[in-house]
Design brief:
By secondary structure, the chain is mainly alpha-helical. It contains twelve helices and eight strands. The chain is 50% helix and 10% strand.
Length: 316
């Protein structure tokens, strides 16, 4: 576990996978509403809607197994290296994984031929076009949330060590030394690090449930949802928020977008710890924030309602 590390930038293929999953369910649609509307429009305008529906969605089914080679480890170094890795995957591995995917999700018969050079090149070209059309226009916001999450993890690591970092990854993840548990995963399995370490990949489009590679022989990764971080509000929006909640609670609510302890909330708002506790209790009782306790520290994060209050009137 001492080799636990965090990806330095968003993984483009995992973001593609997560975004394709957003088209397959209404769960979490509220969070991605602006992106969803624009993405649908862009796909229609560029003529990609049909090929995405008939080719990419079957390759990336939600809540089911999909081939590991489609989200290669090389993606931590950028989209093009990830696409090259897909093309370079041995045919035998592709055939094995696609046969497993077909059994898991009743995928179309053509998916069993993805090992063929021409078809795999077509998939790669479509992935590149899809990324350019629906991911690239939002890259700035995605990068901002990613950097905020890395900062939050760094704070957890410095203050509480690796155990604190792992315990605070997600409400659905439990750290019980020496095991990191991810409940409600589609398939039950054990992954033994064997000295290889764990790469954490925060993902903008991953919703609620973390994801890992299925093949235990591959480098261990855990893709999980970034904590909700919103773009900066305009002065008009900020004034409205202060008028609604009051100056101190507005500051604390905005700080909770990236996760904040009671002590940090007090420093941000320029009040005592006791006063900050009073305000966080009021925000929690109103359903705007949730509080998790780690040892003797309380960490406050936004609820869905709190995110909606902060997001009202904003644009990504």
């Amino acid at each position: 576990m001492a080799r636990t590390r965090v990806a330095a930038s968003p993984h483009p293929l995992w973001e593609i996978a997560g975004s394709l999953h957003r088209f397959q369910t209404r769960s979490g649609r509220w969070k991605y509403a602006d992106w969803y509307g624009r993405a649908c429009g862009n796909l229609q305008e560029t003529g990609l809607a049909q090929p995405v529906r008939t080719m990419l969605l079957p390759l990336f089914p939600r809540a089911r197994y999909f081939a590991d080679f489609l989200t290669p480890f090389e993606g931590i170094d950028g989209l093009e290296l990830a696409l090259e890795a897909i093309l370079a995957t041995p045919d035998g591995q592709v055939n094995h994984e696609m046969a497993r995917a077909a059994r898991a999700s009743r995928a179309p018969s053509w998916t069993l031929r993805v090992a063929e050079k021409a078809l795999r090149s077509e998939v790669v070209n479509l992935l590149r076009a899809y990324h350019r059309t629906v991911i690239t226009p939002h890259e700035e916001g995605i990068q901002e949330t990613f950097e905020a999450e890395r900062a939050r993890l760094a704070r957890s690591m410095l203050g509480e060590g690796t155990a604190g970092l792992l315990a605070g990854l997600s409400p659905v993840v439990r750290w019980r030394h020496p095991v990191l548990e991810v409940p409600d995963y589609p398939a039950e399995s054990d992954v033994h690090l064997g000295g290889r370490g764990l790469l954490l990949i925060p993902s903008y489009f991953c919703w609620k449930s973390p994801i890992a590679l299925a093949d235990p022989r591959l480098p261990p990764v855990l893709v999980y949802p970034v904590h909700n971080v919103l773009a900066a509000a305009s002065p008009k929006d900020e004034a409205a928020l202060h008028a609604l909640l009051g100056h101190t609670r507005a500051i604390i609510l905005r700080a909770a977008a990236a996760g904040v302890s009671t002590g940090e909330a007090a420093r941000r708002a320029g009040v005592s710890a006791a006063t900050a506790t009073h305000h966080t209790r009021a925000l929690r009782d109103s359903g705007l924030i949730a509080t998790q306790r780690h040892a003797n520290k309380a960490m406050h994060t936004l609820t869905r309602l709190g995110a909606a209050v902060l997001g009202a009137g904003q644009r990504p």
